Each structure stands twice: as C-alpha cells, then as structure tokens.
Amino acid sequence: MITRVGGLAATLVLAAACSPALDPVEPLAPDLAVPVLPEAFQRGMNLQPIGDYGGLLDDDQIEGALDALVRLGVSHVAVIPSYFQRRLGDTDFYWEPSREAVDTQTRAVVLAAHARGLAVLLKPHLWLAERADGAWRGDIDPSTSEWEAWSRNYRAVLLEYARLADELGVAGISIGSELTAVAIGRPEFWRHLAADLRQEYSGFLTYAANWDREFEAATWWDAVDFVGVDAFWPLLDGPQEVLTAPGCRTRMSAVRARLEAVARRTDRPVLLTEIGYKSAVGAAYQPWEWHDGQAADPEGQALIYRCIRDVFGAEPAPHIAGAYFWNWYTAPAWGGLRNSDFTPRGKPAEGVLTGWFSPR
Length: 360
Hints:
The chain is of the alpha/beta class. Helices cover 38% and strands 17% of the residues.
C-alpha cells in the first residue's frame, strides 16, 4: 500500500491533544446471515503508529488503543515497527527517532497486547522515505554492486526482530512487506532468510505481498507458513462509478478466487495481512491512493466492510486463515464520521467489525 507520510505524526499528536477519545460504536443489530468465524480465524487489526515517522506513544495511548481492539472482538494485532531507506539505491536503514526508541515502544505494545489476551503478528515495515517520481518500496531493487550490502543489512534487521519476537512469545512475524522487485527477483534470498529466522524464532512466518501481481508471481511461498497479501483491490473501474452491494460482492468474490488458487498451488493458506478501504468518496476506485480533499463517506466504507465480511467470512477454512484490517490509529480521537481515513474507528464500519468479530 502507498501512503502519504508528510505531517502524519504531527496531525495525530494534535488530534490526541485537542479532542476526547471517540466513544466505541455499538455493533450493528444481530443478523443471522452474518458468517460465524471458526476459532482459528485470525481476527486482526494493524496498529499504527508504533514509532512511525517519529510519533512515539505514551502508556495511555497504547492501553486505550488495545482496549478498544478488545471491545471490537479482535484476536490478533499486527504491531508495526517502522524503519526507512532514504532513497532508491541506498543500502543503509534508519529509524525515527532512533532504533532504541522504536524497539522499546514495540516491546511495550507487544507486552500490553499479551496482557489483554491478544496474539501479535510482528510486522516490521521498511519504508522508502524519498519517493521521487512516484517511487515506492516496491521499486527497491538493489543493483549487483549494492546487493551484498543491502541484503546483509536487511537480514540483520529481520534477525534482530525475530529474536525479539521469540523472546516476547509473539505468534508470528512478517519477514517483509510489499518489496515487490526483491520478492519476485530474488527468491533464494527469501528462502535463506526464512531458514535463518527459523533458527532464532519458533512462531509462524509470513510475508505481506502487494495485491496487484506480487502474491501470484512470488515463487518461494513454501519457505513460509502463510501466503500474506495486502489486499487493496479496486472495486470500480472508474472514478465516477457507484459501488453497490451486489457489485462489491462480485468483485470481492473474484479476488477470493484468485487468492484460493494461490493457496491451492502453494499448499499454504492465505492471510490478508492488510485489507481496508477509506471512508471517502471514490475510495473503491483506487483504494491505495491518497487524494487531497476527499469527502467523507462512512456508509460507503461500511458497505465494503460488509462485503469483505460476507465474502471472506463464509467458510474461510482451509484457504483463508485470517484478515488484518488497515488500520487502527493509537491517537484516541483519530476517526469519527467526518474522518475520511482508513480507520473504522467511530464509524459504521466499526459496528460491522464488532458484529462479525465478537464471539456469538
């Protein structure tokens, strides 16, 4: 997924300082047609920010966000320590404000999640900081001269996170996210990396592939336990089209068919490591894009959440192992009916999730 980073941390801090926490949304009225999820299904949510763009958290923010996810019926939370490659062609990585601060924050969130009975998917994100000409992390493709240093540094980062994950008893770790060029072009690197991580870590492994072609083109899924997919498929073919419930189910069912085909071919179940749509007019057309001035459309977001629920919640086993929605911000006031971001917090989509995820 491509996200715009400028000013995010400052906005979150301002929202948290100036507004009260949003009240939780009650689940929608019981619907006998809502699919009942099997116990093993990973009812997931991505949690932002964790040391993201310099935005560290206080204890109240951590605990408040996790308490809200418990009320939502979430069973698994994807905890995201972010780090950065400044530009294409670089081989070094950096953390904001520091590696020590981000890892301390990550540890605190994992421990607080475990204290609430939540399982954790540790999901380190490498971001491309300077994205000239529309470049993004999927374009990171070290040259022959750069490869040794880049791969060595990447391996070292993941080994450290694997050791942290093992120490904390984390359920799973994602060994990468949307690194399309490297994921497709360097299969042996990922095979060796997964094998090395298994020497340090006893939980499950996945990788969060981009939705467009990466998840089908990668050839090394047998090295991990789940086919991870960041699922941001367009549900419309043009910006002026209007999404309907039947049209959404048709498009989403076709997505599920593609995912299940990969699951059968690789003999690995699929984890939707990210799935979600903004509560914004036109969000179903290019859900990965940000556009300034998008008007809020909370009911449109709820329609898509119901569609995801109905398509992926119906008899998910054996091919669909779970869904991690994108995303839940830790700033307590980030959400609400006027907010056009991805978060379902304080919107009808939150009620859809609560009615689906909560045990019945």
